[in-house]
Design a protein that fits this description.
The protein is mainly α. The chain has a domain at 5-193. 75% of the residues lie in helices and 0% in strands. The protein has helices at 5-12, 27-36, 38-59, 68-97, 102-108, 115-130, 133-140, 147-165, 174-192, 199-229, 238-263, 265-271. α4 crosses α5 (102-108) and α11 packs across α12 (265-271). The chain is globular, with a radius of gyration of 20 Å.
Length: 272
């Protein structure tokens, strides 16, 4: 399916952002590819979990790699990518949110829409594959690999991939995630250099992630309210909704548990 020049102009120029030429792409063709190639997603997740399990076994009797500079550049690159994503994608989210009934527009209504938002939404999905490399550094440096880490990485990739297949309008909220990641990856970059960062910064970042997840759960409850109580239509597929709610709720519980273990005085004594 080809877009007419008029349709391209509508999606390229808007009140909140003007798309660059490289951001104008075949949205329908890309969605179709993702739908036809979901087996690739399952293969990636399978290889990732295989690597997590056997990677730790392989490193068990080997000395840890330092990887100071590679880790710094890795995290810095992801931080810069997150900033660009946020700057290009979040204007549409904020523009719709500022309107009357803004949350409904963000979560359930497909228009107005812009090529820039779509392009960087696609880049976020691709980045979730790249971010699996975070785990490689943890394993090679022989750091403690907690369940929250690998579950979060695998689950978010699945949600993003399937969400893009259905081209969910609520995917606009992913740019809130890149906003959080902008701070998070810069924190990891400085930490990789051995720079001493106050514990309060780490605590604030974890709190920010918890707030983000809690907002996701609240959003899901509100969408149910719109559908069931108000009977309003919402452009959201059941598979994405059910999977997304489940994963976000589980991650919220795991993050709260991690927060308590890391920052609660009684739990900190136990960990020591």
């Amino acid at each position: 399916m080809e877009y007419s020049e008029e349709a391209k102009q509508v999606q390229k120029v808007s009140e909140y952002v003007v798309a660059y030429d490289f951001e104008v792409h075949d949205i329908i063709g890309t969605i179709t590819w993702f739908r036809d190639c979901r087996t690739i997603l399952y293969a990636i997740i399978g290889l990732y979990l295989f690597g997590v399990y056997f990677g730790e076994k392989w490193m068990k009797n080997k000395p840890a790699f330092k990887l100071t500079l590679p880790l710094f550049f890795w995290n810095s690159g992801l931080a810069l990518f997150s900033i660009v994503c946020t700057l290009r994608g979040i204007p549409e989210f904020l523009f719709l949110l500022s309107k009357p009934d803004g949350f409904y527009l963000v979560a359930c209504v497909g228009t107005p829409h812009n090529f820039a938002t779509s392009f960087w939404g696609l880049m976020i999905v691709v980045s979730k594959i790249v971010e699996l490399g975070d785990t490689v550094f943890i394993i090679l440096r022989k750091q403690k690999l907690i369940a929250l880490h690998w579950f979060h990485h695998a689950a978010v990739l699945i949600i993003c991939w399937i969400g893009y297949e259905y081209y969910e309008t609520a995917g606009r909220a992913l740019f809130v995630n890149t906003f959080v990641h902008s701070f998070m990856y810069f924190y990891y970059a400085f930490k990789a250099l051995g720079i001493k960062i106050p514990k309060s910064v780490s605590q604030a970042l974890t709190t920010l992630q918890i707030v983000q997840l809690a907002a996701g759960v609240f959003g899901a409850i509100y969408i149910l309210y719109l559908l069931v109580v108000q009977g309003r239509p919402c452009r959201m597929h059941f598979e994405t909704f059910s999977l997304g709610v489940s994963v976000v709720a589980i991650c919220l519980v795991l993050f709260i548990r991690f927060y308590k273990q890391s920052y609660s005085s009684s739990d900190k004594k136990k960990n020591k």
